[in-house]
Amino acid sequence: MKLEELPLLDIFNSLRQRHGLLLGVDDYLVVLRSLQAGFGVPSRQEVEQLCCLVWAKSEEENRLVKRLFEQIWQYFTVDSENDSLDATETSTQSSTLEDSLSETPPLDEALPELETQPSLTLEPVQAVQAVRSSRRDRELKRPRYSLLTEYFPVTKRQMKQNWRSLRRLVREGVPTQLNVEATVAKMGREGILLEPVLMPPRCNRADLVLMIDQEGSMVPFHQLSRQLIETAKRGGRLRQTRVFYFHDYPDEYLYRHPAFLNAQPIAEVLEEIGEWAMVLIVSDAGAARGNFDQERVESTKVWIKQLQQSVRHCAWLNPMPKECWQYTTAREIARLLPMFEMSRQGMNGAISVLRGRYFAEKMDE
């Protein structure tokens, strides 16, 4: 099946209008751009998993997406068998895919067979126009769109709280705070208090370095990456937050721009950030595609060794659930340094590692 033949817009509109799922234009474009980047294209199962990951927010919605795709795959099977029919016979049997999906019953009823010919051009501009203009006269019981600003596993507030726990307090600057112990000791020696002993205030000198995997299988998680960066810079109360980008693993360079611009040699970056910097890597480590890549493991191993020799504390945050790491590249990479899933508990664990409170959770054999 070709990419342009996928009836994604029809399924998307059916989920919003027939079944009332709170989906917006951005939700459709995430799937669209992920497919155009090569994520989910190799098989029907991966396309289905991608749509479930982005569009479904509950187990019930997940089952609904899968059942609609089951109709689609049944249609394509029937359609391939009818290639030998003449034009008259084919036109007699077909109707529009949109009408068929709009008549899809609720989950507790049986789904009818698909009999229609899909028609969809995967162009973002056309997709947005179609989503906005389709069935405007139909009244929905719930709003059509929901503008989501939170990444559900961890809220922005929780992210800020985690960043603020990253502290490396150092006394520096003009002495303005009273040193009680030194003042009392001075009084004991001199027998009189002529002048108190002052000391500089404590300042947070913690530096955070985010190394973020970009493009490819990480496309669905770009919003998460942006949210991590925003909360660290604006609410983290850190001395400095640096952000670098790579794809799959850094070969020789890291990039300061998400479009892989402003390249900088890895060795130069590590020398610049210093040994006290706390490094957090954000990547699915191959878990999103569910495959194993030995070359990626070996190349990542070289990079991680170089990183561990240069900084004291580093951790890995994986947006894919831990149960998805099994039999993938992520499982092997998790043996190289502490890796945590993107959840509230997982982020707490990653922050604990960056603070020097290391604890290891053994991977299941």
Q: Under the CATH scheme, which class of the largest domain?
A: Alpha Beta
Number of strands: 11
What's the order of the H and E elements?
Answer: HHHHHHHHEEHEEEHEEEHEHEHEH
The proportion of strand residues reads 5-15%
Largest beta sheet, briefly?
Answer: 5 strands, parallel
CATH topology of the largest domain: Rossmann fold
State the end-to-end CA separation.
Answer: 38 Å
Number of helices: 14
Shape: elongated
Q: Estimate percent helicity.
A: 40-55%
Integer tally of domains: 3
What structural class do the secondary elements suggest? alpha/beta
* Name of the CATH architecture of the largest domain: 3-Layer(aba) Sandwich
Question: Low-confidence segments, ≥5 residues, pLDDT <50?
Answer: 84-96, 106-122, 135-146, 361-365
Estimated radius of gyration: 27 Å
Mean of the pLDDT scores? 80
> What oligomeric state do the depicted chains represent?
single chain
Query: Order of strands across the widest beta sheet?
Result: 6-5-9-10-11
